[in-house]
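FW: tagging you since you asked about this chain on Friday. Here's the raw sequence from the shared folder, copied in full. Didn't touch anything.
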Amino acid sequence: MEKIKLILPLLIYLGITLYIAYYNSPRRKKSKNFTNEYFIGNRSMGGFVLAMTVIATYTGASSFLGGPGVAYKLGLGWVLLASIQIPTAFLTLGILGKKLAIISRKIDGITINDFLRARYQNKWVVIMSSIAILLFFMAYMVVQVIGGARLFEVLTGLDYTVGLIIFGFSIIFYTVFGGFKTVAITDAIQGVIMLISSIILFYVLKEAGGGMRNIMKTIYEIDPNLLTPSSGGAITKPFIMSFWVLVGIGLLGLPQTTIRCMGFKDSRSLHRAMVIGTFVVGFLMIMMHLIGVMGIAIIPNEQLGDKVIPILAIRNLSPILLGVFIGGPLAAIMSTVDSLLIQTSSTIVKDIYMNYVAIDIDQKKLSRISLFTTLIMGILVFALAFHPPEFIVWLNLFALGGLEAVFMWPILLGLYWKKANSTGALLSMGISLLVYVSMTLLKINIFGMHQIVPTIVIGGITFIIGSYLDKSSPKEHLELFFG
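HL: got it, structure written out here
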């Protein structure tokens, strides 16, 4: 009976997402422009949906499991470090949003590669970016799915395979048949569920620990360093600087959040999303990482930090509340996977197939190919999750930085620097990727900083040098982007 109470809220939520997919299906509505509807939702997102889909896409398993697990080990210093992520929506939408939206409408672009193709007029830039998206996205999705199925297994007691099948079927179904619009709407719902889940667990743990004053007193008695900004020297200044790049300005190079800048309705929606998104990500990051710190007092001496949040939930929540809480981390994982899945499909169909294989294709055939591609990629991701290759786990650790290394400068300088050209873009993308992967595999740390910091610096310098080695784009071409 308790297991039914636990699973019921989750099944209701999954049922709602499936209905939203059916209701918003471009095929059911017989959309006249299938690619525009399926891959970008006809640019109809309002402020709230835009804010929540940006945050939900960025927020994954690490924000609900890994990050709080590290906070359990390092204390309040990690909560302070996690706060660097608060300006995520403000930076992405504020710096890229309006300009990228205007340009994407001018060129009728619906993917980030549409922008890169139009800006640099070089197929190799598009091919290199497509390869990077497919490789890093696949690795990222597989590990997210594994995390979701494992969490489902731990919290419900059901078999890993059962969780994977339920989890996989739901995501594949609503992404395949609903497209971008369904992904955006479900992301908004998932964002709300994340907020509710974090509030529930925080309140219950505060009561279980006898109030925040008593919890902090207990932590102080265990180790006073856990209440200091540097965690007794465990969090160094070079590491803090690295975080400002990796989860700060480097987020401007993430294709999965950048593409959201093409899908909103108007300037009012953009401005509203900047405010809502900043509040939501701030609330989530501080709340969930603070819960990890509270766990030090409530369940001391837990060896595996990643298990802290599931253990706290199981021991302190009733079956129904636990069922609601499960929706939080699962929603974070689902919202990340669905966004990456739809963008992976758009890369294959829109950026490669439509531009280099079948340039002239009718909408009916295109819709079948798009749905089939999304379905195949979804099945592939979940098939790998049954028996995942070990290297994918390690690849996921630097997938975030790899995407930033490849895309940050071509997107940012392409939008704001007139002299940017394909030579600079190609050199920056290739050398940045090579430097980042090499430094990560060889474990090279310059002054104790994360590998993404020197990679971003080298990538920027390489881009500028490469751009000056070749001639600038024609004035009539630049007028489209800077007129």
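FW: The two ends are 65 Å apart (CA to CA).
HL: agreed, and DSSP finds 21 helices and no strands in the chain.
FW: great, closing this out.
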